[in-house]
Amino acid sequence: MGEEQFEQQEDRERSPELLQSLRSKATELLLREEWEESIQLYTKFIDLSRIQITNLAGSDPDSIHKLKKSLCLALCNRAEAKARLHHSSEAMRDCDKALEIENTHFKTLLCKGKVLLGLSKYSSALECFKTALLDPQASESVTEYMEKCKKLDFQAKTGAFDLSDWILSGFRGITPELAEFIGSVEIKKSEASGRGLFATKNIVVGALILVTKGVATERGIIGSDESGEKAQMVMWKNFVEEVTKSVRRCDRTRRLVLSLSTGEEEEKLEIPDISLFRPEESSETCRESKQDLDMEKLLSILDVNSLVEDAVSAKVLGKNKEYYGVGLWTLASFINHSCVPNARRVHVGDYAVVHASRDIKAGEEITFAYFDVLSSPLEKRKEMAESWGFSCKCSRCKFESLLSVANQEIREFEMGLERGVDAGNAVYTVEEGMKRWKVKGKDKGLLRASYWGVYEEVYNSERLMRRWGRKVPTMEVVVDSVSDVIGSDERLLKMLVEGMKQKKNGGCSGNIAEMERIMKLGKGVYGKVVSKKKAMKTLLGLE
Ligand SMILES: C[S@@+](CC[C@H](N)C(=O)[O-])C[C@H]1O[C@@H](n2cnc3c(N)ncnc32)[C@H](O)[C@@H]1O
């Protein structure tokens, strides 16, 4: 007999004591949250119990029953430890094996429900908690889990999210947990480059387009000095490590992340079906991936697709101003840039909530601004797009290119701006110029957006308004025409709010139309997650 076989036979002979000791040690490790070590001991316990059950088959039903009961609990506890290590697929497998032994095992149902909840599979999780609730041990926490599943399932199906109460409480307490949601959108080939996200139905301003949880996010408070730069580099390194871990931990995440663009040959990229991004529709759980990871490719993907939370088209709710965060959200990574964007995002905890920043028609591509498109004339935007590694193909860039090629006047005007001409004179020159250049209708908003800096200066200065106020359009007209093309923007909103406050201070009461204009723009900036008027007013500093 070999040494190993001898040891195995010895184990078998003293198995009742061995099993007892393994079980208590594993449980102790579990309670101490030493997950890896407890998994190892539970694995030994599980293997040995199975051998015992086979050996006793047909002879001792009482002992077999007891052994099976302990096996079920061990599988459940190992599942718990695996879940804590984010090995969801293995945890699910252990839960299912435990439930094969006892299909109403309370602790296992609870563990499986929580794993499914973590995978955003809300209705499957609800089924587990419903069965668990029938157990006499069921406490209030099971009902709370059920309520949470129902709420998240409803959000995931309807997109009806509401953060008003959290806002009204001054963002007190933990960040609200959100469901993943995908609205009426599909991924298709884009005229801009590669793939893009498109509306399949009309979407009204503020309506949610998607809510998606980050693959990884990294945050910190970063100063503007040298130490800030260092801190930013450390954050980036940690972020890359977190993404790598998530990708290695789960083959579904890996597949989705690796489907993203590296910025090269986008025309050749496959167009994934939107259903791959719906957790509830995916039959996959998260299996650990054993394949090698092409780090060079992953780094290029992160370069092209990572988003900063405080970007110009984003708003972070519930955090202070110096806060800096970077993250990767797979579905949001299919959204191309446009200088006439129609969407924005709000960041809540690890979730990116993308909503319409103006009305969107069915078939239109969903876009947000990767960089500042208000206050940036064509040449500046070209530079910014270049630093992102692409040349922008949006309709505004095409329009302004054609206009500036034909127009020496615009070049002279821009040179004047660089020299620092009087803002009132500059606004007057643009407005008069547009008449000569035959810029009409919506296109006026495009140029006003490009030179927003001087418009803003004029409307913010009593002196300039006294001098130029009658010769230039009203602030409301300009804000309307700009938001019509570039969607809602915080600076436009601020301008309207300040205008209304000034009127109030001057003894005039704000009229209903003004308030409605502000609320509509507010919806475009924050999205319909702020559904209560009072919460919106709080955000706008009107309460
Ligand atoms: C986050 S990805 C967007 C999705 C990407 N088009 C795809 O197929 O996966 C960013 C990349 O898309 C391309 N892109 C985005 N907006 C663009 C635009 N307005 N014009 C040209 N290329 C654009 C650039 O190659 C950029 O590096």
From TrEMBL:
Which Gene3D superfamilies does this UniProt record tie to the protein? SET domain, Tetratricopeptide repeat domain
Which N-terminal stretch is annotated as signal sequence?
Answer: none
The record's annotation in PANTHER family points to: TPR DOMAIN PROTEIN (AFU_ORTHOLOGUE AFUA_5G12710)
Q: Where is the SET domain?
A: 183-371
Q: What is the name attached to this protein's record?
A: SET domain-containing protein
